[in-house]
Hints:
The complex is a heterodimer. Helices cover about 70% and strands about 5% of the residues of chain A. Chain B has two domains: about 60 residues, no CATH class; about 210 residues, MetI-like fold (Orthogonal Bundle).
Amino acid sequence: MSEKTIFSERMATVPARKGFVKSLKKDLAGWGFIGPFMLIYLVFLVWPILQAIGLGFFKIDLLVIADRTFVGLDNYFRMFWGENMQWTVVNMWEWRLVGLLLLVPVYRAWRKKTLSNLEGGVYAALLVLVFAVLMGLAPGEGGRWNDSLFWLSFGNTVLFVVLSTPVIVGMGLLLAMALNRPGRWTGVLRTVFFAPYVLSVSVLTLIWAFLLNPQLGLIGSFLELIGLEPVSFLTSPTLAMPAIVVATLWWTVGFNVVLYLAGLQDIDKSLYEAAEIDGASYWQRFRDVTWPGLRRTTLLVMVLQIIASFQIFGQVFIMTRGGPNGATRVSIQHIYESAFRDFNLGYASAMSVFLFLVMIVFSVLQFRFSKDET
Amino acid sequence: MSQVTAKQTPFLLKPRVKQTLFLSLLSVFAAIWILPLIWMFSLAFSSNEALQLNTNSLTPIDPTVSNLVGVIQGGLTPRWMLNSVIVTGFTTLFTLVLSAMAGYAFARIPFRGKKIIYPLVLAGLMVPREAMFIPLFLMFAEADYHNTYEALMLPRIAAPLGVFIMTQFMAAIPMEIEEASRVDGASRWRTFWSVMMPMSVPAMTALGIFTYILTWNDFLWPLVSATQREMFTITTGLASLQGNFAQATELGSLMARGVVASLPLLILFFIFQKQLVRGISIGSGGK
């Protein structure tokens, strides 16, 4: 205590000028070191975000990009509105009900004080606004959306997220548990399951487009072998999206395995020993030790998976071009084609902002979970 | 005594048998998992004529290297590989140096403004890059900078993940090591370059390999920015071939291009697997 006082007294006697020069030197050094990165960061990341918001209010033709016409909310009107719009309780009620059920975990987290009043309130308000109010809007009889492809693409994107997330996360967990044991051979197996992750999307599609091809692919011949008709997965409206999910599973599950393996390593080994002494079965050990111990990891993996899935593009763009009949058309593809096929950059920008906002919700959640970890 | 062993042996054996059985099952599953990759390699080394009749072999039919030779000799694939190597190499290099510099400042130099700037950089971690390509496209179009290496590299270098990783790592390096160097009269730059950088090699390897793979596999931005065929990366180039290649007749050649495109990454992966795993764990906030 007294030492501290002496120290601060000494500090006070240092001539002010010297302290000023010293801190100025530190400022210069600090800014010098972050300068190069910050310059690129501001120009190529921060500025484009701000611009995207502004560009959404303009009509910009790809062929004459300098020529911009301010159109106010027209682009957003085109996205979100249609003819004969009506609000009904029953519109998409199943999805809305599922969405509103998310209020339960929010409420419980708030009761347990893991969510502050403000944060819990914001989440609850958002859920009610989106699921109870906004999703009740749809074109009534004889009406139609201004851009029905926008909703088709967004619906497919959500479908992909909903289909792929449980599969890829669940498989990641199973594989991680299976591979979480010492030994050279398990190391080899880990490498095998992880290897596809380093391939680029066009190698993935090269392999899978042919693998799924009914005449040329391995899967078709396998089906024939067990006495079934070869199926043309990628041209079937019902099977195309599941096929893309399977290809994506093969490609990216290794990433989740890595995160889950790290999570498993963090679980206190003595908990397993205690469970073993108590004579707990595999299932009991999983339910009472592994699963609770992986809670944070699971949340993180889920959120990362959701963010990645919302950005799905390459797989469908190369393998199906969004077909058959729009069954696999996704949001990024719609943005891409609005900009580079229909030359409408302003509208594409407005849609980017929408997708950005949807994903930022999940990004904020990821940030929360990973911040709590450290 | 003998009774005890007789009783114990099955008890000891049982888990081992179970373990072996389990590992065998898992190995079979792993073998199925790697089949598509083996298939690609097998087709790449099969002659195109043989593939007209049968494409289901997991070992090359009528083995030949002519497909691979064809990739190197003709077409734009070598050029695309070169583009990818240049873009990926420099992006990784710049990401490493700039992230390390910024990370050092954020971790160690108490400068004014840090408390505002660092959260601003962290917020960038939340930005989904794929949703932001339209304004980026317009920026480069206005400057007439599309179809250049710079256009392919700069947006990737702007990603703040590296700064986050390096700041975390450098903050954990013991203060004494840096102070010893500073007391010896070394400048900040010297301290950074010859003390902190060498100390950060583990983190930088992890970040480097992660950046390399992500950049090599970038698809949407190169697709939008590099529209001249000579400026394609191998990732977009390979995608462009899949639509209009005479697929049925030249399957072997096409697969050979797939092999060429993925071989550099697979080799890197086998060398740096540990570092890549580390990079993923740190980078996603898992650990």
